[in-house]
Amino acid sequence: MKEYFDGILKTVKDSVDSLDYGRFEALAKECVNAINCGKKVVVSGLGKNVPVCDKFVGTMNSLGLPAVFMNTNSAVHGDIGMVNEGDVVIILTKSGETCESVYLETLLEKRNCIIWLLSFVEISTLTNKLNERCLILSLNNEGDKWNIVPNNSTTVNLIVLQGLAMEIADRQGVTLADFKKNHPGGHIGVQLKDVG
Question: pTM of the prediction?
């Protein structure tokens, strides 16, 4: 098992190391600008990316930052109504070819929102359409014996989105006292009871 875990850690590190920090900076800046204009960050994904999106939204909300999750499938059944002009929408799709994600992007174009892609394939339908608004990471393998189970890709997506949440919070000047307001209960609430 040690060899397996070592392999996972190396793959994840290599993937995160491939992040284009110029584009990450541009995404963070557009998120902050949207929030400062009264807009929000929307993350959209399918399958195993759903809990990754949920975690990002939970982190953002706990920091007092406006974010929502829109399931890519449910978007075409009314949930796209949560997207307003000026919102930043981040679509998660490993291939950039998932038919639901490609269709969603065409619908979002009509809403005058800012669309970003988080993916692992450099040339795809969505990278061609979104051009510079793409975070494309390398991925050596998924970490399973068939190289198909969404494992390393979802782990990397989680790391990148959590990093984005931390960057937005830092740029917005979120304090521990701000965080405390949203965490009155549990062990965190106990730890922060004396924070002013």
Answer: 0.96
